[in-house]
Amino acid sequence: MNYVYLLKRLVYMLAAVLAVSSAVFAITTLVPGNVANYILGTGATEERVAQVEADLGLDRPVHVQYLDFVGGVLTLDFGESFVSGQPVSEMIWPRLIRTLQLAAVAMTISIVTAIPLGIVAAAKRDTIVDQLVTTTSYIGLSVPSFVSATLLLLLFTSPPLELFPRGGYVALKNGVIPWLHHLLLPAIAMNTVILAYVLRQTRSSMVETLESEYIRTARLKGVAESKVLFGHAFRNGLLPTVTVLALNFGWMMGAVVIIEEIFAYPGVGEMIIQAVDSRDLPVLQAAILVPTIAFIIANFVADIVYTLLDPRITLGE
Amino acid sequence: MTTQRQAERTEQETLLEVDSVDVNFEVPDGQIQALRNVSLEVERGETVGLAGESGSGKSTLAFAIVRYLDANGWVDSGSIRFDGMDMLSASTEQLRSVRGNRIAHVAQNPGSSLNPSMRIGKQIRESVELHQNPDSKAAANERVYEVLDQVDLPDPEGMAERYPHELSGGQQQRAMLAVGLSCNPDLLILDEPTTGLDVTTQAKFLDLLEELKSEYDAGILLITHNLGVIAEIADRVNLLYAGEMLESGPVESVFTDPANPYTQALLATTPEMDADKKIRPIPGQIPELDDIPPGCIFADRCEYATENCRTGEVPMETVDSATGHESRCHYWSDVIGSTAELETETETERTHGEAVMTIDSLRKYYDEGSLLTNLLTDHDPVKAVNDVSLTIHESEAVGLVGESGCGKSTLGRTLLKLHEATGGSIRYDDRDIDELSRSELNEFRSECQIIFQDPEGSLNPSRTVREILARPLKLFTDLGAEGRAERTEELLGQVNLGANIVGKKPHELSGGQQQRVAIARAFAARPSLIVLDEPVSSLDVSVQASILNLLKNLCVEYGTAYLLISHDLSVIEEICDRVAVMYLGEIIETAPTSQVFEPPYHPYTRALLSSIPLLDPETETDRIKLEGDVPEPRDPPTGCSFHTRCPQKIGEECEQSDPSLEDVGGGHCISCHHDTTELDQPIENQKHDDNR
Amino acid sequence: MATDTSSQTESDRSPIPPVVWRLLSNRRVVIGLVFLVPMFVMAVLGETIAPHDPTNTNVQMRYDSPGGKFLLGTDHLGRDLLSRIIVGARTTLLIGFGSIALALAGGVPIGLAAGYAKGRTDELLMRLMDIVISIPTLLLGLLILAVLSSNVINVTLAIGIVYAPRIARVTRSATLSASEESYVMAAQARGESNTHILFREILPNVTSPIVVEGSVRVGYAIMIGTSLSFLGLGTGPPTPDWGFMIAEARDHIFQTPWFLVWPSLALLLTVMATNLIGDGLRDVLDPKETGDSR
Question: Residue A30: what pLDDT?
């Protein structure tokens, strides 16, 4: 492991966090239709606007506000909620933990189903099995998560198939089964697009790998087909999937907004909706920034994993 | 030796017997017959060459032998027997126990044929473990090290731990060979083993093969487009053309007395070093596989052909039953009788004028690194061109030769202001090209043109030939639409293309046609200097010759100066008046073309010359082996850049001081610490065995 | 010879370029068009072909099942579902295709400039794009719409901003490899201007990956657009809109599943059709590419 490379990537990651905070700041402060209007609605009187701006420190020069905001992000201080007056960071941590649990279960589901199915489809290319898998994944790719979530709710939470609760969250300390029982349906709902996407990516990169010249070399050495698949193609063919999984984590961080809303799951996503409805700006900023930062970290991790798995990438340059 | 081998032939067992094989492929528009009625034999201990141009079906035959045709291809008729076993009816199990074990297929492109994420040692050990049942992993590793050592890879234990991308191209090729040899195969199939390697690397690889032939008693099927390689190493040769075998026999007879017009034409079209032969292009093109003419496949391009050749099947006829020399031609006896017809070239002395371009101490460095990289790591720029001085005169053709990565293309591009020079000066028409005004720059652009290696890439795929040729005329001439159309037609005529191709797009043309269009474009505005960057190296040899002749004629017709960049000295010799030899970003020798091939030599040039395989199988070359690989251009050696590999290295002097180009007489300049007499001496073939 | 040239010119001007034929003989494109063309017809004609007024409420007829007076049934306010779906197609397609058109308009020039300039410019532009990409798509859309007011134009704009950097990335990498080709260097050797090289030499040769990328993104853009309106950040009532219909249906799924099923099906078929066409385009235009990143 090359520490210079690691250091460089860390610097880039920090820069990305900084840049994203700036972007969020820019969108919320600089876009026409300013914050006070956002909070009060468009019909507010000028005095009310001026008062709110003074309350929030919005009458300060933009660069002071900016430094204050970015400094806050770097120290994980997002200010106080307009609605409850509670520090935003206190509000967001438990929710983040719950959202990450949901994402972890959803991710696990896509890894354990999509990757094997993708490999099977690639290995049995152009057979019935392949066509079945790819066609099904096609449909999956076209179902937005709010549709799949609503349909799952319709099918599995009411008689005759009342298999799952309609929503909510049970902490892990109350037992794995109840925990999973509440998580499973939203996790599956979140997976429609993602699972299909991972599957198609896995299949296409495996197909490409299986057509490569070094696979031909292996077969011409007399290596048996199963060993060709797992000994030679597996590692190279799954490399792109690492990146795809990180991308999907980003997709999930968006999808949680919908899934948590539908399943009344108390995570960051639900918080975003509440913040939009109640026009709670600091909460909105934090609830958008925190999953974004999680996504940036996921990308960083994927990058490192990729370089560890692929000997061609020396961590030097 | 030849007679001895012939005596042995009858006793020897036939290892591989390909008999009247047809291979078909299913393509969107129907079926194509990629191989038709192809027969070939390989005996134990014998090296059989399979030669042919691209698209002739050489690799297809190799894959048919190991039963690894693409899913849309199959052996339609005929038989393939390997050591008594019918390969075509073999079960998957049988095939698996033969492949890699008794038949080793060494694919071309070693870079992509080795698994990028598996260590070299493991890739070899895998074969050993599959087929040899070694007692332990240690025993298997023993064999891995042994075979790595046999293919001349340094430090076998260390090498086994490396990944493919950590090896140079030549080393990767050796590693592929090691995989193939690991199980002591009976038959070794080498598919274009030296294509893509530099001549000196190729020479080392061929020497290695020669040594291994005596250690392993395997039969070798050597597939290549390079006739020199076959002449060098094979015992017998088979010539494949558009899917049909046209001639086969012992290398000596086929190369000295070809009995097939195709072989004869191919030999006549291949440029040869230091032979005063006038290369003769083969007219026409290889027939498309979906449109095979009846009768003889070569008839359309053959000077012996009669009506008789265009109908009915032409059988393989025996030329000499004792040696097994056969030819698929009705008129083989006429062909054999006419071999001496090769014209010799009359040297035309051309007068050269003033200097058009003067380069002085030019440097071009790449990848100087960002601030962050330089702070965090030791970062050296790539010194692609390092202190080069060269003058090109009016209507003079200067050749620039060197191996890949020596900086020759960078030099050519920097001259045309396509790259910004790092240091030094380039003067065109006695003006510094960095100080040209806008209109002067435009004039410079119209006067200096470039032709690239990859003809398809150099033509915009979304333009028609008409648009491609109109562009320079629009930019550099005052011609109106009418005048441009006329000039376009004239240009196409000059490059021997019909005017009917003006509406076509590049992908509808053959490689040779594309390069002609690129040449026409370069000449459109009547330039005074053209940089030709490997203009023929991506073309088949039969096409190569006609392009070379065309370039030669145009050079005279237009009085244009050339800077011809090539890795191939025989190509340069064909066209150029003067040669500059480049090594690691520096010019180490310049001389009038004829003098480069005579002593005194720069030690590097001498090695380069001795590395080129000759067409004449009877000439024994005394090859000079260069040690190691070309050093990194990021960190070139101190002193003379060649001292790390020089067989004539004197000592500390070479390591410390950089010699300069000095005239040794008649405009022949050499950059070496030796004096002329020492460079004249033949060097005894030093340390031939110590790196095995 | 003169006749030869003229016939050549004629075939150049043939009204239907061969690529269209290749597209129309691609199975995926055909299936995709079979579904997408009716959607477009619905979007364009809207109210004129709708059997009922899509906004007309009729409390007596609420939760009507399909097959009666109302072909696909009614919603909780007794509005005709078929008419609402027909009229709702307009918003959905407008957002999907409009936002990608915007993304192309913004992303292609940026990608071209970055890929051709290389070096610092490239670095700067692409880092900027990376920032936008590192915000999850739906969150970025949400953030923009939380600040701007929600209407069709702003939704389209927001999704356009979300996807422009992705278009820029694809354009850049295609430009980067195209500018390595020697025909670009040949143009430089002729002293062509940068604009000529970018728009006349490079652009015509990078359209395939850009078109493929754009068409694949349409499906995602539709998903994001309907997701936003599902969350109440879309065009809002009374304009019918599939995403909002599904949001409304959620509260009534146990009274009538059809209310949920029809808009979901319409949405699914539309997204699938655009995906099929996108993949078909890739098969035809860019056969080497097998996958892309989100």
Answer: 63
Tell the CATH topology of C26-289: MetI-like fold (1.10.3720)
Classify residue B650: in a domain, yes or no.
yes
Judge whether C181 is closer than 8 Å to chain B, CB to CB. Answer: yes
Q: Can you tell me the distance from the alpha carbon of C185 to that of C178, in angstroms, rounded to the nearest whole number?
A: 10
pLDDT in tens, B206-237: 989 988 888 888 899 999 999 999 998 999 99
Q: State the Cα–Cα distance between residues B333 and B313, nearest whole angstrom.
A: 18
CA distance B605 to chain A (A): 35
Q: Chains B, C: CB contacts under 8 A, how many?
A: 64
- Provide the whole-model pTM: 0.84
- Interface contact B462-C183, CB threshold 8 A: no
Nearest to A289 by CA among A315, A253, A245: A253
Cα gap C213→C274, rounded to integer Å: 12
Chains that touch C (3 or more CB pairs under 8 A): A, B
pLDDT per residue over C36-50, tens digit each?
A: 999 898 888 878 887
Residue B688 binned pLDDT confidence (cut-offs 50, 70, 90): very low
Average pLDDT rounded to a whole number, residues B153-169: 91
Q: Does A4 touch chain B (CB under 8 A)?
A: yes
Q: Within this chain, do residues B207 and B282 fall inside the same structural domain, yes or no?
A: yes
Q: What is the CATH number of the domain that holds B285?
A: 3.40.50.300
Question: DSSP secondary-structure letter at A233?
Answer: I
Nearest CA in chain C to B458: C183
To the nearest whole Å, the CA of C129 is away from the closest chain B CA by 21
Domain count along chain B: 4
Q: Where are the domains of chain A?
A: 1-80+279-317, 92-266
* Residue closest to C4 by CA, chosen among B502, B486, B507, B516: B502
Every domain of chain C and the residues it spans:
26-289
Mutation test of the interface with chain B: which of C4, C19, C21, C182, choosing the one with the most B Cβ atoms within 10 A?
Answer: C182
Strand partners, B425: B360
**How near does any CA of chain A get to the CA of B100, in Å?**
4
Q: What percentage of chain A has pLDDT greater than the value 90?
A: 34
Class of the domain covering A92-266: mainly alpha
Both B210 and B171 in a single domain?
no
- Answer yes or no: do B198 and B123 share one domain: no
Tokens of B613: 């395989």
CB atoms within 10 A of CB A3: 9
Domain range enclosing B610? 599-692
Percentage above 70 pLDDT, chain B: 92
Do both B328 and B430 map to the same domain? no
Which range (A122-126, A270-274, B9-13, B602-606) has the least confidence? B9-13
The answer on pLDDT for B244 being more than 60 is yes
- Per-residue pLDDT band for B103 (boundaries 50, 70, 90) equals very high
Residues B432 and B534 in one domain: yes
Q: Which residue of A has its CA nearest to B165?
A: A312
Residues C219-263 pLDDT 10s: 999 999 999 988 888 776 667 888 888 888 888 877 777 888 888
Tell me the nearest-neighbour CA distance from A283 into chain B, angstroms. 37
**Shared domain check, B162 and B297:** no
For C260-281, what is the mean pLDDT?
Answer: 90
Q: Is B448 on the interface with C (CB under 8 A)?
A: yes
Residues B558, B424 share a domain: yes
Is B500–C8 a contact, with Cβ atoms under 8 angstroms apart?
yes
* Residues of chain B found within 8 Å of residue C182, distances taken between Cβ atoms: 452-454, 457-458
Nearest CA in chain C to B476: C190
Give the H or E element holding residue B392: strand B382-393
Residue tagged 């190569």 (tokens): B544
